[in-house]
């Protein structure tokens, strides 16, 4: 069962991180160059159909793997390999959620492209960091 959960987590992470890389590197530069918020809106309207379900799957599989790999997580033992990585992943998730809430309620309604660009790049960097943390946890630890 755990192998299937890990596989679903990896596929969902690929969709989440890949989508943000495409947005940051492929669409954002054109939107900024033309000062055209609709480029971002057009991408988001298509991507959210697979991005949001992927995020939900990431959350569900992440919680399952937390229970499986770090049942004593709330002891906050940073010397434990999995606990350390999972705490970093949840911390990164909190920052990602805060950026998303700020963008959704304050930047997108006002169509503020330049501050939104900062959020897009930040969430993309965080998404890549998520992948790094997952790789580090599974490979024996780079952190």
Automatic annotation (TrEMBL):
Regions crossing the membrane: 6-29, 50-70, 90-107, 116-137
Domain of life, per lineage: Bacteria
Signal sequence extent: none
Gene Ontology cellular component terms for the protein in this record: membrane
Keywords from the UniProt entry: Membrane, Transmembrane, Transmembrane helix
Copper resistance protein D domain residues: 43-133
Protein name: Copper resistance protein D
Species: Winogradskyella jejuensis
